[in-house]
Amino acid sequence: MSSAVMPISAILALAAGTYAFRVAGPLLHDRLTLSPALQKLFTTAAVIMLLSLVISSTILDGGAFAGWARPLGVAAAAALYFAKMPFPVIVIGAALTTAGLRAFGVA
Amino acid sequence: MRTIFQTPIFKHLTRQDVSDVALVGVAAAIVGLSFGAIATGGGFPVWVPIVMSLVVFAGASQFAALGVILAGGSPLAAVLAGLILNARHLPFGFTVANRLRASVLERILGSHVLTDESLAFALKDSDPDRSRALYWACSLSLFVSWNAGTAVGAIMGETLGDAATFGLDAAFPAVLLALVLPALKDRRTQAGAGIGAAVGLLLTPYLPAGVPVLVSLVGLVALIGQKHQTEPLTREEPAE
Known about the structure:
The complex is a heterodimer.
Chain A: H1 8-28, H2 36-59, E1 60-61, E2 64-65, H3 69-82, H4 87-103
Antiparallel strand pairs in A: 1-2
Helix pairs in contact in A: 3-4
Chain B: H1 2-5, H2 15-41, H3 47-55, H4 59-70, H5 75-86, H6 89-99, H7 104-112, H8 116-122, H9 128-160, H10 168-180, H11 187-203, H12 211-215
């Protein structure tokens, strides 16, 4: 975790690209339309990548198994989601479960 | 915010609109708080989450970029992951543009604050004046609360100490999970996400960090041969 480096150039590149996606429609919509197929593609791509991030950051830490405490905390979050708990309860529930398991010696 | 809501464009808003917008703001502040805390708790300097929230202003991509770097990935992989996530703003922008009759300056400014939520609010009413008022009310509420939440969270995360003791490493996937589950409604999206996550996980030992998440896009094969019905573009709000 000590090597957490996010260069300002990376942040600005992400910001510029994101702004380009956002501003294209409002500036060009008189001359261009997007097909529903393309719209569906963008939305699905976002969902797929997010779930992939959830799974890998739940199970792995730096390419190796992260231990049991973290996946069990995320499992608690999923249970709280399906119990229709509000967002803060889901997130804090996950952190407390993982922290609690670690306090009892579960890595 | 009271004075802002009394300016001419916002006279089209009802009391109910204002309280809806405020609720979305509270939810965004809480997600922003977790973003800031996870960032500094994970070892980033305080300015990183704060600047990101101001200039990127797209929650899921900020979490994703951060997650890629925390997993040991390169900044390039982090930017790519964030950009692919934000590509959905392209169709959002076209949808909003059709509804908002605004000056060029307003379009240029308004584009920066375009989010899933502000699009959903703009589409609530077909009246152009109300649509525009709802768009700006939601966007401004989100911008203020998201950035305030991030700043407070970033400072809190730094004073907390070891992130693992407090289970913050579990909070990161938990936030993303709560954001993504409402969008996993139709079978093709579920199949695509399942394939993508499995491929990403299996390839992790063999690829540089950050790349498996990009490779998970092979899950898009699940869309092949789909008939396209028109369906609403808007996604669920994270708080729901």
